[in-house]
Amino acid sequence: MLKGKVAIITGGTRGIGLETVRAFKENNAEVIIFGSREETVNRAIMELEDEGYKVSGYYPNLNNYAEIESTIKNIIKKFNHIDILVNNAGISANKKIEETKSEDFAKIMNLNVNAIFNVSKSVIPYMKKNKGGVILNTSSMVSIYGQPSGVGYPASKFAVNGITKSLARELAPFNIRVNAVAPGVTKTDMVAALPEEQIAPLIQSIPLGRIGEPRDIANAFLFLASDMASYITGDILSVDGAARS
Ligand code: NAD
Question: Quick check: is 153 catalytic?
Answer without folding.
Answer: yes
